[in-house]
Design brief:
Largest interface: A-B, 52 and 51 residues
Helix content of chain A: 10-25%
Radius of gyration of chain A: 17 Å
CATH topology of chain B: Glutaconate Coenzyme A-transferase
CATH class of chain A: Alpha Beta
Strand order of the largest sheet of chain A: 4-3-2-1-5-10-12-13-14-15
Number of helices of chain A: 5
Structural class of chain A: alpha/beta
Radius of gyration of chain B: 18 Å
Distance between the termini of chain B: 34 Å
Order of helices and strands of chain B: HEHEHEHEHEHEEEEHEEEHH
Shape of chain B: globular
Largest sheet of chain A: 10 strands, mixed
CATH architecture of chain B: 3-Layer(aba) Sandwich
Structural class of chain B: alpha/beta
Oligomer: heterotetramer
CATH topology of chain A: Glutaconate Coenzyme A-transferase
Number of domains of chain B: 1
Strand content of chain A: 15-25%
């Protein structure tokens, strides 16, 4: 016997991102972050008990997310285990040994995990002026960086970003003070990074997505793994938790699967 | 100490003000009544500094053509979309962008508040293009303790800061509710500080606050009482942001004509205003 | 997370710890239970950092011969008098003094907490002899923005910080009551943080605090519950300092023999302790 | 008709110091500061309405001083108009355009208004190891500096301090960013600074004190003014306010006059 459980792309991505987190770690995220926030809360309630997460500009530490809210500075996030001031969050991000996981994103994301939230095209006269990177330069100092994007197309996933807001692996000599990008999560797939070349490598395809779809939608050629797995779907328990948090349905606005 | 928004802007933000900072974060605690007054009076500023994440306040000032250069790390509307006027002005070159990061803003304001000549930044921050794009705001120097090359940023010392707080007492002591983001630091770094508040404080209310939530009156130049004056952005612990009103702004301001219409509808098309 | 003072010191402050910071200010909020445990165990540290104004905690550790070098801006007892053990050790050369000022401590801890490689100091601070007396902690460099010569100080990154807070919850989130001086900053800058608290927090008590008064548990290594454990110094919002007890310490510790007697009387003359 | 009102040296000094303050100014003080705190509160209630004062390490802004307390970090100081964190006080002291009056002191005070709270004698092997200067270097950035000392003897008032904790007027070229020392208040007299030479100049003798007494007790030769006035005694109103604040008698422990 089996039951068919429908879930949205957002719910799948939240479940995938939650599985990146380990007990007792400290995670942080910036603007437009309902997705990583839901992932962190889900992780706390499943595989990563004791996880800490800081909801960006609000300074909230372990917000209870009842309900999950759209803005990263919503006052409802202050219903949390503790709250820090924003300047103190900046100190914590800068110290370099405190943040285990940094959730990042970009209007452009490239094959080395560089993220651009600033100018697309020329720096001084961009074709698309993005909002700006806020704290993205701090990804350089995080333990590892999980990149997520609700768009998977060739405008977003590019060979080289036009402007580095959040640095990925450097092309030349010299390294990152932190651990660098570890995973990219998109509506179509997940990609990790080849340990030797530090270039993006396809890791899993989401249920129902084909390799051709991903390659068609990606502006660079990811390394292909020996065996391409399917992303595990969210479990009924995971979905049940996500839906309890997300009474406003923020994660269900995308296509259902 | 207590002024109307018109008096405060008229007296304390003279035309051609060099460096104006505006507080709030994302769609929260933007001192909109003060910002609207700037627009009504067409008060131009040479440089606008935003908090690490700005939205409507910055977009309105830029859209109205009142800003030569904007120093910012983010202007947008989170899940509601990009900032239309900022996009248009930045893409056309009508506004110069001094792209900063959160660290350069927060540590820069700390330096400005404390009289520090500049601030060193954590290693790794030189890997983004932020410092490369703005060579006049950043330098790479030798750390005299380690011999390493380190990135340093200029201090931020606004001439005027416009911020929002929940309430003020008679002496101009103000207190914040909910989060106050970089607003206290901005006020501590600025020479002139105008605080927009929802209401007057009740007796004993300020004294009951923790140190963190209070800005003492000797750091405040003027207080403007403007109930619901942050709308359509939120005022923490008073009201949430007005999402339909923000969406309506975003829709209209996609074009210059629409932006002018928004000003007209919202009482900001004062005499002398041209779209 | 929750340890006895003996366990906390045994496990987290190994013999020869390079850089220990101890919180509290003047005769307030000194984490005395942890300090007494250091004395009982004769745990020596290479460098002790005090808050901008230390009293009993520093004087005891120095008097017990456990400190090679003390980085401080003040060790004394305000109206009660000078610090006898510190005086004796500094005058004889038994302890090396790294004389700092409040700005070098606070901005140095800020730099340590935020990963900044060093901190620039406000113009005029080079006019005191503090920087001249400690050439390894201060440098004069050229401000790349103005060309002026400016004083810079090293960051402060303690290996271990011992601080006091009012209460802790199960996750190690702690909150302060009254003033918390430089204790939060010290904890944010240190690699290992032991917090001595008066009691466990009640349900919801931490969440009701303002951001300023809380240290989130991910910054806390261990919590030691020690009711009245700051005595004879004060614990803000719990009890005042015990002036007769402090005067008795000051009287006894005027001589080395008297100091040894104080340790004996107060249960700090553990096996292996020699006066 | 007249009445004889007795007052203590501390009360006289508090009244003298209060008269240095102007309406709306911002004053600050450090450790062992019951005297300048009382002076500030007295000034607020008499000649300097709207004065702001920051009680050093406590961060209290306009503490109500009911009662006046001995320790600068006593929790009772937090009964105040507002409270700042200590790190924020350090910022305010450093900005350089906010503090109008800085109350300073020293184990040694010299003819140029330098104050020493650190080592007396050799820096590395001092004959008297003072507690340390805390925030005294910030006097360089204050509008003006009022120096006070409860001791007036040749060990305290010296030609040259052995260590500069708080800088007075420099002997050589170059100036102070701030306005420098403006007045010294002792149990015997007040001294200001000659505008031309920046050297200490006797200003007033406290009631009953002779010039010889002051010169005998002072380790340098102060400039003598054209006319030597007597320090005005505290008025009955001033004494009444001081005694209401100082229920513990902190200002009356010295000799009464």
């Amino acid at each position: 016997m089996s039951v068919t459980v429908e879930y949205s792309t957002g719910e799948l991505m939240a479940a995938v991102m939650a599985r990146q987190l380990r007990p007792g770690e400290v995670a942080i995220m910036g603007a437009v972050s309902a997705l990583p926030q839901a992932a962190c809360r889900l992780a706390q309630l499943t595989t990563a008990p004791g996880l800490w997460f800081i909801a960006g500009g609000s300074g909230a530490v372990n917000p209870h997310l009842e309900p999950l809210v759209a803005s990263s500075c919503d006052e409802r996030l202050l219903d949390a285990d503790a709250v820090m001031t924003l300047p103190d969050v900046i100190l914590v991000e800068g110290r370099g040994d405190l943040i285990d996981v940094f959730f990042a994103g970009g209007l452009q994301i490239d094959i080395r995990g560089n993220c651009n939230l600033g100018p697309v095209g020329s720096w001084s006269h961009p074709t698309l002026r993005g909002p700006g990177g806020v704290g993205l330069p701090f990804v350089a100092r995080a333990g590892r960086v999980v990149i997520y994007s609700m768009s998977h197309d060739r405008r977003t996933f590019v060979e080289h970003v036009d402007f580095v807001s959040g640095p990925g692996f450097p092309a030349g000599p010299g390294g990152l003070p932190g651990g660098g990008p570890s995973l990219m999560v998109t509506p179509l797939c997940t990609m990790d990074f080849d340990p030797g070349t530090h270039l993006a490598r396809l890791a899993t395809l989401h249920p129902g997505v084909t390799l051709e779809q991903v390659l068609e939608a990606t502006g660079f050629a990811p390394i292909l793994p020996v065996k391409l797995e399917t992303t595990p779907a969210p479990t009924p328990e995971e979905l049940s938790i996500l839906r309890r948090l997300d009474s406003a349905g923020l994660l269900r606005r995308g296509a259902s699967r | 100490m207590f002024l109307s928004s018109a008096e405060a802007i008229e007296r304390l933000v003279p035309e051609g003000t060099g460096f104006l900072a505006v507080g709030g974060m994302h769609m929260h605690n933007n001192p909109m009544e003060l910002v609207r007054e700037l627009v009504r009076r067409r008060r131009g500023v040479r440089r606008l500094l935003t908090s690490p994440s700005a939205s409507l306040a910055a977009d309105l000032l830029i859209g109205a053509g009142l800003v030569d250069e904007v120093a910012t790390a983010y202007i947008g509307f989170e899940h509601l979309g990009l900032a239309p006027a900022y996009r248009r002005a930045a893409e056309s070159g009508a506004v110069t962008v001094l792209e900063l990061c959160e660290a350069a803003i927060v540590h820069g304001l700390y330096a400005g508040a404390g009289g520090l000549p500049f601030t060193a930044l954590p290693p790794g921050l030189e890997l983004s293009d932020v410092s490369t794009a703005n060579p006049e705001h950043f330098h790479t120097i030798t750390d005299p303790f380690t011999g390493e090359r380190v990135l340093v940023a200029a201090p931020l010392r606004p001439d005027v800061a416009l911020i929002h707080a929940l309430a003020a007492d008679e002496r101009g002591n103000v207190f914040f509710a909910g989060a106050h983001f970089t607003d206290r630091l901005m006020a501590m770094a600025a020479k002139t500080v105008i605080v927009q508040v929802e209401r007057m404080a009740k007796a004993g209310e300020i004294a009951a606050q923790r140190a963190d939530g209070v800005l003492p009156g000797f750091l405040v130049t003027a207080v403007v009482v403007a109930p619901r004056g942050c709308l359509p952005t939120a005022s923490h612990r008073a009201y949430g942001y007005d999402e339909p009103a923000l969406r309506s702004y975003l829709k209209l301001s996609r074009t210059e004509d629409g932006f002018a219409e928004y000003l007209q509808i919202n009482g900001m098309a004062a005499a002398g205003v041209t779209a």
